[in-house]
Amino acid sequence: MPLPDAAEHRRRTAALQREMQTRDLSAILLTAEPDIRHVTGFLSRFWESPTRPWFVVVPAAGDPVAVIPSIGAALMAKTWITDIRDWPAPAPADDGLSLLAEALREAVPAGGRIGAPMGPETVLRMPQADFARLREMLAPRVFVDATPAVRAVREVKSPVEIASIEAACAAAGAAFAAVPGFAAPGAALRDVFRDFQIGCLKGGADWVPYLAGGAGPGGYDDVISPATAAPLAAGDVLMIDTGAVVDGYFCDFDRNFAVGRADDAARRAYHALYAATDAGLAAARAGITAAELHAAMADAIGRAGGAPIGGRFGHGLGMQLTEWPSVQPGDETVLREGMVLTLEPGVHAAPGRIMVAEEDIVLTAHGARLLTRRAPPDLPVLTGGGLA
Amino acid sequence: MPLPDAAEHRRRTAALQREMQTRDLSAILLTAEPDIRHVTGFLSRFWESPTRPWFVVVPAAGDPVAVIPSIGAALMAKTWITDIRDWPAPAPADDGLSLLAEALREAVPAGGRIGAPMGPETVLRMPQADFARLREMLAPRVFVDATPAVRAVREVKSPVEIASIEAACAAAGAAFAAVPGFAAPGAALRDVFRDFQIGCLKGGADWVPYLAGGAGPGGYDDVISPATAAPLAAGDVLMIDTGAVVDGYFCDFDRNFAVGRADDAARRAYHALYAATDAGLAAARAGITAAELHAAMADAIGRAGGAPIGGRFGHGLGMQLTEWPSVQPGDETVLREGMVLTLEPGVHAAPGRIMVAEEDIVLTAHGARLLTRRAPPDLPVLTGGGLA
Q1: Partner A, chain B 121-160, Cβ-Cβ below 8 Å
Q2: Which of A44, A68, B271, B337 is the most buried (most CB within 10 A)?
């Protein structure tokens, strides 16, 4: 991966600091991987280890301070961050708390407000008992929710972020193109999933954090299951949904395939999804709300004679597989240029069976631009020798 | 993957309930993936999406209650859990809180104690603002740290868990065996990492959540970096460290290779690590402490004329890449039969350069049993045509 670009990360930090000023925050404490990477450029798969907390303090003015385990100091020193304070974690008696409290005291006057993401779709990635202790150490300073500030900046992607997401889409696209070569009646879903991940890697993915899907007669009942050893059967609809990563950015899209043969109900459901995606692509633009984008797709399913499923029809995408906003009724987020979203309509395909389609887009000055190579207009049929 | 075994998960739940009784807990609230899977058997890669919180309430007596997003209800219904209460998440205004509060009120009398993991190596996986609101909703009930209860049960692995970890070790072992076929002077580290992950999948891994490593002349300066496009050069020492997963269980071990040629300092460092691992294998048994296991390895490095690095020399392993305890000075955890641990000694190999070795073991009644096929006694040299 390229070395983190200092100018890019300075711009992001400055944007976050502008949000902080309008919200009277003296500093923001970041603990989660995407928030820390967004500001610093620090990219490591070591976050898979839950043992150690990591902290970045973004002051209202000036450069961020990284308060991190020693094991990460060499890698953090390769980013634009110069104030790196490390400790030999894990140290359960004081796992960075003293260092962190000192950094926050420098940035925040007594009585000042410290922001931390504490709202929807966020997690404070440190032991809860340590956070309670930190609050006591820093009183009378108070912690307040900084989700709106972080979200406002992270939701709009820069050109380099969009390019990475598009590269991830291409990697998964190569794997989807290879599916007819390894998925056919009789193939175990577990083997299909394994071959699909190999296809993503061969297609250029750095890694494949997410893969789920389902297969069943005329549709599936679940879109988040891991693979079993069950073989694909003629008449099944197979759905594969993946989040492959390039340079730390995700794609998130799926593809549907009929196994051996496609019945009329599955074809109709597929066409309703295709029409819904058409409607989503036409509607998506800066200025409308996420709820309006959902309505455009749900209405199209109805016009195609389908029955939309509940739940959301897409979401933000970037350093995480799923990000704000939610394309669903009630989400009044106003879409902005530079947002990367998934369009993910779902329909009832048969009793107890659903089908879901998904594409990734970026909002430009001229509306939606597809980052995925779009699914074919008709449900493809896997025959074992390729596509029918 | 096999369907979750009801008897296995009932045993785990009963063990947790025994810990709760000695700690006067009326219920435990679980929010993190491994904790929830440990009790229910619920396995999904969908946890990669941070959008939705998931909750399981384990009462002091009786069966657990799952309070989860509707998207997971079908999959949870395939486990032994029968009391499943779902809501159409994401619902930012009330993202499961009312349902969760009701389940906790049923299990916990007013004034009772609710445990939640809040200590070292834990994260409360729900928005912090929601947790604050939940505490208010449930007052005068109080939340207390349940890390010791959860840890006591999760640290000791069952035979089926050990078998899964061993299968993950075999999958990564197959990939390590293939390294001489694709890693040689001139190969880009990024391509080596990609081929290595393909090797894990071909070797039987379900997925490859973790891969890190480093390469540099005579050693590396960092063990958590992602791969760059930099080519391997003759004289480099390449280290690859992976966490591959089978049936939801990790391996975590590394291998070192000399690229083109090995210098004497690298060979000496490798031998010191090998001697340290020998000492760790001989010392590891139920009844000693994690700190004593560290000392056995550090002393062996000293006897071999090496200089041990700081930090820990191993850790627990299971549903997470890293778990309690830490094999380091000060960790007085008494080791128990059934614990799965990594032995991970590190030495200074050259100025600014380190080398680290890692193997996975389980503690039996007769001491340590290797779950990995042990690294070779001499530093292997990659020549492009295989091993020298």
Answers
A1: 121-129, 131-132, 145
A2: A68
